[in-house]
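Q: What structure does this chain adopt?
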Amino acid sequence: MTSYQDFPDRPDAAGRPPLPEYPAAAREEPEQQPYAARPAYQVRQQDAVPQPGAGWDPQPAARPTPPPPSPAPPAPAPGLQPVPPPQIGAPWEPRTDPGAAPGSWSGPGGGGYEGRPGTEGSPGTPGPYEPRPGSPAPSGPVPGAEPGFSYGTGSSPWGTEPQLVPTRLDVPALHDNPAGYFGALRLMHGTVAPVLLEGDLPAWLVLGYREVHYVLANPGLFGRDSRRWHSWHRVPQSWPLLPQVAHNSSVLFTEGDAHRRRAGAIADVLAGADQFELRLAAERAADAAIDWFAGAGRAELVADYAGQVPLRVMAALLGLHEDETAELATDVALSFDDGPEAAAACARTRNTMEVLLERARRRPGPEIPARLLAHPATLDEEQIVQDLLALVTIGQQLTAQWIGNALRLMLTDDRFAVTLSGGRRSVGQALTEVLWTETPAQLVIGRWATRDTQLGGRLVRQGDCLVLGLAAANTDPAVCPYAAPGLSQASAAAPGAVANQAHLSFGHGEHRCPAPAPEIAEITAKAAIEVLLDRLPDLHLSVPDSEVRPRPSLWLRGPAALPVEFTPV
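A:
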C-alpha cells in the first residue's frame, strides 16, 4: 500500500509547497497546547510558511500586543495520545455585539465566522456566540447520545480563513464529471476543501490521496464516533443524511479495542465462507437472473442483474428465504439514496435482520447470524443486528455498483472488445481499473477530529466533520495510473508510479473493509460478469454511452441504468 510519505516532495495541484512531514512513528503530530493558552495569531513553527488562502497574518508586529498568556499545561510526549470520550462541542450562549453579523457563529472565545480576530487572548470584535460554563445543552436529542456526553454548537471550521468560499456538494457537476469537479476543487482550495452538506452544514472534503490515506491511518486523531460533531444542534430530525451519520451500535462507529473486537468477529465469520462454494453460489445467482430476461433480447442490467447477483449471494450467506430477498433488494437500494424514503427503508431492512437473528437463535446453522451469536466476542443482539445491517447494505450496494461500472467499461471501451483473434482484456483488468477511476463509494462521511490539528495546510478544529473523497483520492494525478473519465490520458500518473492495488476503494487502516470482504465482493463481481458475457456474447448497449446517466447519489458511483440488447436465447 502506498504510504503518506511516498510523495513527500511533490507540490499539490495548486502548486502549493508540499505538506509538512508527519512523525513516522505515530503518523500523528503531538498534541499542542490549547489555543486559549497562547495568542491567537501566534503561529507554531511548523505552520510558519504562509499558505495561499491562509486566514492569519504571520507578522506578529502588525497586531496589538496581547495580554500575557495563561500558564500552559505540560506538553504530552510525542506519539499517539489516548482519545478522550467523544464530546460534541460545548454549551454556547447567544450574545449580541454591535459588530456581530446576525446569524453567524464562531468558536471558543468568540472567534468570528467572518474571520475577525476574536479567539481568547487576542484583540478584535468578538463573534456572536461565546461559551458559558454550566449552560444547559440546546433542546433536541443528539442521535445516539449517551449519558455523560455534552454537546453544543462548536466552532466554525473556517473561522480563521474567512475568504474561503465553501462549495455545495450536491451539484450536477459532481454527478456528471466527478474527476473534473474534484480537479477544479483542488485548483481552488488545494487538497482539503470547505464544503456544505445538505442543510448548509459545514464540513471539510479531503481530496488528496496522501491526505485521505493519512486520515484513515490515524483513528486517534480522526475518530469514527459521530457524537464528536459540534454541529448536531443544527441537524433537523428530517435531515436526509441522518441514516448515514447518526451514531448507532454498529461496528462502523466503534473505535479502539471495541472496534478491533467487533471487526475481528466479522472477519472470522466471513473467513469461514468457502471460496469455491462462493463462486458456485455467484454463478447460480447469475444464471437465475439471466434466465428472467434471456428470451426477451433486451434488459436493464443495473436493476435486473448487477443488483440481483450480489444480493442473492448475500442472501445465501445470511439464510434469507426467496420471498425475503426480493423485498430486501428494494429497501437496500433506497437506504443509500438521499431521498425521503431512506429512513423508512432502513427501518424495514433492520426488521429483516431482526427476523434473521431470531431464526438463527431458534435453529442455529452455518449462516452468518448464527455464527456471530456463537462467536467468542460475545456480541449482544443489538450489536449483531447493526453489524448485519452494515454487511447487507454496504456489501450488496458497493458490489452492485462495482459490477455496473465494470460492465459499462467493457461495453464501451474498445480495449475490452472482442478482437478478430477472440481476445479481449480480462474481466479482472476491468474490475481493477474501475476501482481507480469509478470507485463505487465516491464519498464517505465521515471522520470527526478529536482535537485541533493541521491537514493539507488547513486548520481542522476539534469536532469538525471530514468527508473522505475516495474517488478524488483515487484519481489524484499524483498516483492514479489510469486516465479518469472526463480527463485526458495525460492526467494519469506515469506507469508503475504505484502498484495497481494501491487504491483506497476498500478503505485503509482500522476501518478498512474486513479482510475477507473484498475477496467475497471480487469473486461475486467476476463471476457475474463472466457468466453474463459467456451466455450473451453479442451483448451491447441499446443507447449511446453519452445517454447513460449516473446514479443520483453523492455517496455511490454507478450507472442509474444500463439498457442492453442481445440475441434472444
